Amino acid sequence: MSLSLIRTVLLTAFSFCSAARSLSTSVHLQAQGNVSGVMLTCEKWKMPIPFSQYNSKSKKTLAKPGVKNIVLVDGVRTPFLQSGTTYADLMPHDLARAALQGLLNRTGLPKDAVDYIVYGTVIQEVKTSNVAREAALGAGFSDKTPAHTVTMACISSNQAMTTAVGLIAAGQCDAVVAGGVEFMSDVPIRHSRKMRKTMLSLNKAKTLGARLSLLGSIRLAHLSPELPAVAEFSTAETMGHSADRLAAAFGVSRLEQDEFALRSHTLAKKAQDGGMLSDVISFKVPGRDIVSKDNGIRPATMEQLAKLKPAFIKPHGTVTAANSSFLTDGASAVLIMSEEKALAMGYKPKAYLRDFVYVSQDPKDQLLLGPTYATPKVLEKSGLTLNDIDVFEFHEAFAGQIMANLKAMESDWFAQTYMGRKTKVGAPPMEKFNTWGGSLSLGHPFAATGCRLVTTVAHRLQKEGGQYGLVAACAAGGQGHAMVIEAYPQ
Amino acid sequence: IYEVKDNVAVVRINDPTSKVNTLSRHMQAEMVEVMNEIWGNAAVKSAVLISRKPGCFIAGADIKYHTHTHSLTSLSQEGQKIFDQVEKSPIPIVAAINGSCLGGGLEFAIACQYRIATKSKKTILGTPEVMLGLLPGAGGTQRLPKMVGLPAAFDMMLTGRNIRPDKAKKMGLVHQLVDPLGPGLKSPEERTIEYLEEVAVDFAKGLAGKKVTMEKKKGLVQKIQDFVMGLPPVRKQIYKTVHSKVMKQSKGLYPAPLKIIECVQTGIEKGNAAGYLTESQNFGKLAMTSESRALIGLYHGQVTCKKNHFGKPERDVKKLAVLGAGLMGAGIAQVTIDKGVATILKDTTEEGLARGHQQVYKGLNDKTKKKSLTTFERDGIMSLLSGQLDYRDFENADMVIEAVFEDLSIKHKVVKEVEAVIPPHCIFATNTSALPIKDIAAASKRPEKVIGMHYFSPVDKMQLLEIITTNKTSKDTTASAVAVGLKQGKVIIVVGDGPGFYTTRCLAPMLAEAVRALQEGVGPKKLDSLTTGFGFPVGAATLADEVGIDVAAHVAEDLGKAFGTRFGGGNVEVLKMMVQKGFKGRKSGKGCYVYGAKSKEKKVNSGAEDILKSFKLTAPPAVSADEDIQYRLVSRFVNEAVLCLQEGILPDPVQGDIGAVFGLGFPPCLGGPFRFVDSHGADKLVQKMKRFEEAYGNQFTPCQLLLDHAKDSSKRFHK
Question: ipTM above 0.90?
Answer without folding.
Answer: no
